[in-house]
Amino acid sequence: MSVPNFDKNSPTPDIINIKNPLNNPVPANEIEKILDDLDYPVVDQLVYKWEIKKWDEFIKQERVYICVQFAIALQNVEDETVSKCMTARHRFAPNQVDWGFNHLVSSTVLNQGVPDFSRPIMEKNSLNVIVYLKIVKDETGVLWHNLLDYDSKKETGFVGLKNQGATCYMNSLLQSLYFTSYFRKATFQIPTVNDDPTKSVPLALQRIFYNLQYSDDPIGTIELTKSFGWDTLDSFMQHDVQEFNRGSAAEGAISNLFVGKMKSYIKCIDVDFESSRIEDFYDIQLNVKGCKDLTESFIDYCAVETLEGENRYQAEGYGLQDAKKGVIFKKFPPVLHLQLKRFEYDMERDDMVKINDRHEFPLEIDLDQFLESDEDRVGEYRYSLHGVLVHSGDLSAGHYMAFIRPEKNGKWFKFDDDKVLPVTQKEALNDNYGEISKPGQQFRQSRKLTNAYMLVYVRNSQLDTILSPVTEADIPAHLRKIYNFVIFIPLLVERLSKEREETEAKRKEHEDLHLYIFCKVITDEDIQNHEGFDLFDFDQLNKIKTNAFYRQQQEKNLLMEKQIQKNIFKVKKTDTFKKFKEIVGDRFQTEMSFRLWNMVTRKNKTIRTEQPISDFDNENKTMEELQLLISRNSEMKLYLELPDIEKINNKSNLNAIKQFTDKDVPIMLFLKYFDPFSQTLEYVGKVTVPSRSMKVMELMPLLLNRKKLPSDTNLILYEEVKQGMIDLIKPNKSFINLELLDGDILCYQKELTAKELERLQLEQPNQHLTIPDYFDFISNRVVVLFKEFPAMDHGLQLGMKENLKNNVEVVLSIKMSYDQVAKKFSEALGKDIDPMKLRFTSCSNSGLPKLPIKRVEKLMLSDMLSAGGHYRQQVNVLFYEKLDCSIIEFDSKRNLKVLYVDENLREFGPLEFLVLKAATFSEIEKMLSEKLKLNENAKIKFFDIQYGKAYQYFETEDSISKLGENSTLTAQGEVFSETRIRLQKRIDYNDKDFSKVKICFCSGDASTLRLFSNDEVLYNILNPKTEYIGLDHIDKNLANKKPVEKGIILKDN
């Protein structure tokens, strides 16, 4: 349906006034003055009149739109309850004038009964069609806006922050801090003139704040995340907002802005004794569950608990006393950050969950009642809401955004990553309270998953100071020099001009790309620098940047990279081939005549020369025409040939280039020489064979001359057909019989005498003696990075301590056996290491040691690498250990690491014991006692510790085979007072909540329950297999209350 573009609720009511046709009917004769009477019956007539008061302002209007709710209904004439209705809403604008429904109800069912109704919509061939229309006033200017052409800076004066991957949590906090103007000013005052923006958090914050103030486009945060030490992968992790806030670089400079003081106390009722502790806080964590609003959360936080009965307080000098325990605030900071506990640990699920309960917060709050009564107060403690940080979604996936009121008593804005939108107060407050679940509804239906998790309040008496505008004078000069395009200095002008010129050049180059052809030209020098199969790898520039083998040769890489760039020509399609040859000759600075050969990829995936490009036939052709003739790809690959200088069969080859008219067509071959002593395959040039009918033996003098070998040297020749196919050549055959063509490769080596073979095997065993052997090595060559197996941290957490000095890269073949790999690696270490005393461990995808590699028959390096999932990736990694015994003896035993923890929580170890695989823990106990000289009667309990967690408890008669390969044994005991502290951290309870939890000894059948005393040692009284620690706590989530709660098990680790 279409509607008029203007209405009285349009954004311009002072400019346009609509005359409502119902209240101001237009006489029929007035219509007839304009529209001729065609002598046809008139069904209906209507006139709209717009009175435009200010034409000059009207024609300047860019945002002409109207927000409409509407519905179309079909209704039974006699029974209005029988109807079919569809509703919609839309923001009508000049480019979106049509919106509605293309289908309401099928005409075939109008006479049939409508579901849930006793009669059809159409009866007696009649029905009602009703249109409902409601014009909605858009208070924010963005109601139902599709945001496709939305400009945040233009509409609001503010810009957003780009989401660089799950960083919306950081963006929401940064916007909140930015609009705390006092914080922004304090951040600008941190000395950063000499800081590196990728390493300095203060400078990164300054740059972001400056850009937020002056930029017209959304701002990136990559520099800031780099300054925190995050890499690309880490930025996808949902970091905790609260911790990010506490770690802010400006913390020291503006601690008086965010830091308050609170007192935790225990005060005896019957005697004059009080124990208290005053500490700073950056934020206050308030319960949401069980509290309907913010005031109730503060009351709950400051609630006083009475310690009486079995829970009486041990007062120094007074013994057990009844007491009051609680917290009270000494001072609230000017800017108050309130963390609403939307994310809590659920004991029943043993996991974190999100609390979506409704929790209201006011626009203003008075916190005077929560201050200590005798505190010397300065000013009042009334606060106004400045920011609402919101989380939408559940625990596993969600989105963060911020609602902020930048100015005192100003408007609210929503900061959603790169978009900034004006919003109403209801959208900022009421819509983020959360919702109360309704009985009988499903979770998704009953919960509103968008709710506030952090509130920012500013003290009323300091609003003007804290939210005062930040002017240019507040910004350090070095930032203004870097960014401000108004305060120009000569160096900056030059820098910016150069950047603009480079940007414009790149843009133009991209636009003109279709006008050019890219040609890659290689020379004999390039082939000589190429190592391995084929003549050249045109994609090797990419391999240089990624392949581990090439990264070993950094200096060579730089030369190759420079050479590759030299060989790439960007040629206009309209240039002639003659002009292109002149450009090639100038770049390669050759004064000799040369010709260019087209290079193609053959069916066997090799790249070889195919045919020379004739100057006579092609010099006047354009490069585009030439490309269509000789190349099937978007780029041309060419070889630059210079004339031969040797003689073949007493014929000079200086003029070989011109011999195209001979009946016996010549062929051009490429030559490689293999030296088994140096283990190198060297390119020794190409040769033009005058006649294919010649025999290969006629080429022998030239081959010997290329390597300055004696004339009586016997040679062995091969053809390099493709990877994995190196064919032996018989010299008495002709080139035509061997089917050799232009671009084929001949490889040759000297035939080793018996004495040379003996010397080679003696001095360099395991070397490659023949060309096929060497090519086989190349095809299976891989660079393996050997890392020293990391030591374990003292403690329960496995920490990888990598010693880079002990890392060694070795070039190996994937066909090597375990023993061959060990031998090669021991030689690379160069420390007289016995290869039989080396043990290797595979590497996991995370870069950590995975599984020890067993030395078995027929095991090859490819198997060793694939065990960690890294084979054929950029870097292949193996971890190594130096053993005190041979690997054969080691494999028959087990190396066990034991961490001993005494009753005072002192750690010893890890201690290593080499024991038989069938040993029991009683044997370990004996060895441990002897090692540490423990009391003979000492009782040691063993636990399986993996990555900081206790997985299993062992009896002394158990076999060590039950222990996992990557496990560490620990024997640990501690008094209950220490266990209680660890338990509180495990379930993430604050001091106030945890003080209400009662902890007791619980037998497996719950027949025995008793409280612990602080000096009891748990491992002396608990059997981890049948007895537990019980927690008696209050469950505030009454909606999900169950008759019996599921318990949790806490092992003494």
UniProtKB/TrEMBL annotation:
It catalyses: Thiol-dependent hydrolysis of ester, thioester, amide, peptide and isopeptide bonds formed by the C-terminal Gly of ubiquitin (a 76-residue protein attached to proteins as an intracellular targeting signal). One of its GO terms (molecular function) is cysteine-type deubiquitinase activity. Pfam families: UCH, USP7_C2, USP7_ICP0_bdg. One of its GO terms (biological process) is regulation of protein stability. Residues 159-460 form the USP domain. Gene3D superfamilies: Apoptosis, Tumor Necrosis Factor Receptor Associated Protein 2, Chain A, Cysteine proteinases, Phosphatidylinositol 3-kinase Catalytic Subunit, Chain A, domain 1. Its EC number is 3.4.19.12. Signal peptide: none annotated. It is an enzyme of class 3 (hydrolase). Keywords: Hydrolase, Protease, Thiol protease, Ubl conjugation pathway. One of its GO terms (cellular component) is nucleus. InterPro entries: Papain-like_cys_pep_sf, Peptidase_C19, Peptidase_C19_UCH, TRAF-like, USP, USP7_ICP0-binding_dom, USP_C, USP_CS. SUPFAM superfamilies: Cysteine proteinases, TRAF domain-like. Belongs to the peptidase C19 family. This is ubiquitinyl hydrolase 1. It comes from Clydaea vesicula. The lineage of its organism: Eukaryota, Fungi, Fungi incertae sedis, Chytridiomycota, Chytridiomycota incertae sedis.
